[in-house]
Specification:
The structure is a single chain. By secondary structure, the chain is mainly beta. It contains no helices and 11 strands. Strands 2, 4, 5, 6, 9, 10 and 11 form a 7-stranded mixed sheet that branches. A 4-stranded antiparallel sheet has the order 1-3-8-7, with no helix packed on it. A hairpin with a 6-residue loop joins strand 4 and strand 5. The radius of gyration is 13 Å and the shape is globular. The termini are far apart.
Length: 123
C-alpha cells in the first residue's frame, strides 16, 4: 500500500494561486493512476483532475478546466496540482488519490488516499 502525504493548502484571495503536492512513500507511483479530489462542506467528494496513464490526456472536471493543471514527477514520486485563478467555490479539502489499477483512479473508493489539505479562497 502506498502512503500519500499532501501539502500546499492554505488561504488565498480570489484570483490567486496555490500548488498542492502529494508525496508518495512506500511504493513508486510510476504505474499508478493518480488524481486529485475535493470535498466541500455538505457536499460529496468529487474528482478534480487525474492522470490515468502518462500517455493519455489528463482528465479535468469542467469546473476547473483551464485553471488547474495536474502533473507528476516520477523522479520525486510526487504528484502536483497547480491551481490558478482560484474562486470561493474552490474552497474544500483536497485529497490525493492513487490506484494501482489506473482506470479506477476516478472512483471515490479504493486505492490509496492522503489525509487531505484545506484550501480556502476568500472573496
Amino acid at each position: 500500500q502506498v502512503q500519500l502525504v499532501e501539502s500546499g493548502g492554505g488561504l488565498v484571495q480570489a484570483g490567486g494561486s496555490l500548488r498542492l503536492s502529494c508525496a508518495a512513500n512506500g511504493r513508486t507511483l510510476r504505474s499508478y493512476g493518480v488524481g486529485w479530489f475535493r470535498q466541500a462542506p455538505g457536499k460529496e467528494r468529487e474528482v478534480v483532475a487525474a492522470i490515468i496513464r502518462s500517455d493519455w490526456t489528463p482528465y479535468y472536471a469542467d469546473a476547473v478546466k483551464g485553471r488547474f493543471t495536474i502533473s507528476r514527477d516520477n523522479t520525486k514520486n510526487t504528484v502536483y496540482l497547480q491551481m490558478n485563478n482560484l474562486q470561493p467555490e474552490d474552497t474544500a479539502i483536497y485529497y490525493c488519490h492513487a490506484d494501482p489499477i489506473p482506470t479506477l483512479v476516478l472512483q471515490t473508493r479504493g486505492g490509496s488516499w492522503g489525509q487531505g489539505t484545506q484550501v480556502t479562497v476568500s472573496s
